[in-house]
Amino acid sequence: MDVSSKFTSCLKCNKGVLLPLSDYGQDGAAVTYKAWACNNPDCGFSLRIDKGEVTYGKKIQPKN
Hints:
Elements: E1 18-24, E2 30-38, E3 46-50, E4 53-56
Antiparallel strand pairs: 1-2, 2-3, 3-4
């Protein structure tokens, strides 16, 4: 599957695409599209929503 035709191109690196990520809120409810992250590992751009605040540019790290 060619993901570049289904998702938005990353405007930071122009090589990857922004992939939607979902999570669960504090009450256990699903939060659809809580974050978007570039799939280019050299880029690492992300955009996320936490408690109504939008942050971007932080590299998303796996939780240990």
